[in-house]
Design a protein that fits this description.
The structure is a homodimer. Chain A is built from six helices and eight strands. Chain A is an alpha+beta fold and about 200 residues long. Chain A has one domain: Alpha-Beta Plaits. Chains A, B: It comes from Aquamicrobium soli.
């Protein structure tokens, strides 16, 4: 299993480099459980969903505490057949939990969101979940959408994606649960995620 | 068939609103062939791949002519089973061309990139193509990667995505061809795309 993300932070301010550097400081507690490599477009983070989503959340929450409008984009993937196995990415929730029926997985996902830490930073997220390589992929997608609507962070449905809104702790836990609990354990599952904070056109 | 994108423009400057408004002017020639709706996170564009990719390209190329570092993100989708049919999205390339063998489709894609207009704006793109709802999705992905490597715009492979580099005309034509020529005609195909220009850390 190979799990990771390509992550980019976009502060809409001429001082964007300082905001990015400040955000990167928030990655420090997670670096020993992730492999992190940066180029001019994005930062690769490889590791299990536990440190991976914590790191993305903390990076964005730190940047969102600055006054500037800031967004983050992440391409998140598990089980891509073209990637090698990596011990850093072992995840018991996937290997044990995914054999449960859809309704039980949705209940576990909802319980995890209720226990998410409160970070005190309000954010918006828009994301799409893709379950690849199986004929009946929409069953898992619709099951996931039901979970999202009851998660407490659901804001609205849009074409091609779902909007969440709330504290960064609950919102990123919702996305992690969507990634972990839907789609087969060994399947290829990806997320296209955008987070936004401090938008002048916040609706 | 329903085809469209959620598109966001991120200028890394305190004058970001002006850059976005200038970019939106470049959409004018395409508005009669697209349905366009904006909220605080992204702009929905619905229509056939011809005006859709032209509009995304022109929006980004206009913004990239400003001096500021700017990025664009687009979540692009065709054939999502949850979306209604829309006459705006009719596309002969999909309905006729997709019955050809993979090698012939790749050759048509390569020919289209050679005929792309030159916009005089150098850009970077990073994107992932997802072919959903079929067991052998990786055959189409690997066929697409072969096309990308020979496209003239290929820059490098990364985990989870492919980097392109070159003139905005050729780069966006490469992405359109990836979207059009790979995956079944009636299939659910999506792209997670990031474009970048004027980066201070351009590698």
């Amino acid at each position: 299993m190979f799990i990771g993300a390509q992550v980019s932070l976009y502060p809409m301010t001429s001082g964007f480099v300082d905001v990015i550097l400040s955000g990167l400081e928030a990655l420090a507690p997670h670096r020993d459980r992730l492999r992190i490599e940066t180029d001019d477009v994005s930062t690769l983070m490889v590791g299990a969903p536990e440190p991976l989503f914590d790191a993305i959340r903390d990076l964005f929450a730190r940047a969102a505490k600055e006054p500037a409008h800031v967004t983050l984009h992440a391409t998140i993937s598990r089980g891509c057949p073209g990637e090698p196995d990596d011990d850093l990415c072992r995840c018991e929730t996937l290997t044990v939990g995914q054999s449960l029926p859809l309704a039980e997985r949705a209940a576990l996902a909802a319980a995890a969101v209720k226990q998410a830490p409160v970070l005190g930073v309000g954010i918006d997220v828009q994301f799409s979940l893709y379950v690849l390589g199986q004929d009946r992929h929409m069953d898992e997608i619709y099951g996931c959408i039901d979970f999202l609507k009851a998660s407490g962070t659901f804001f609205k449905s849009k074409n091609f994606c779902t909007r969440l809104r709330g504290d960064a702790g609950a919102v990123f836990e919702t996305v992690r649960q969507a990634f972990l609990r839907f789609g087969p354990a060994e399947g290829h599952v990806t997320i296209d995620l955008t987070a936004s904070a401090n938008s002048p056109s916040h609706g």
